[in-house]
Amino acid sequence: MGVIKKIIGFPHFIKNFLKEVHLELKKVTWSTKEELVAATAIVLVASIFLTIYVALVDFCFSKIMQFIIQ
């Protein structure tokens, strides 16, 4: 009997879920285009600097290891 109630109540559950999702999305504050561009630029610059830093550290460690091994 419980399974039948779950099957019958499923469309109602979906309807309520979607209604609540819609209400929550109304509360969201979306970023402006300018904020999005600025945040993207910050992420790209930080990624480039981090890539360069890791490459330099890797290069230095590889030279140190070559010196130790030889």
Provide a quick synopsis of the model.
This protein has one domain (2-69).
Q: Specify the number of helices.
A: 2
Count of DSSP strands: 0
- Going by helix content, strand content and strand pairing, the class is mainly alpha
Catalogue the unreliable spans.
Answer: none
Could you say how many structural domains there are in total?
1
Oligomer: single chain
What is the mean predicted local confidence, pLDDT? 92
For the biggest sheet, the summary is: none
Proportion of beta-strand residues: under 5%
Report the helical percentage. over 70%
The global form is elongated
- Cα distance, first to last residue? 78 Å
- The whole-angstrom Rg is 27 Å
Give the ordered list of helices and strands: HH
Keywords:
about 90% helix; elongated; mainly alpha; 2 helices
Structure report:
With 70 residues, this protein is mainly α. The chain has one domain. The model has no long low-confidence stretch (mean pLDDT 92). The termini are far apart. It is built from 2 helices and no strands. 90% of the residues lie in helices and 0% in strands.
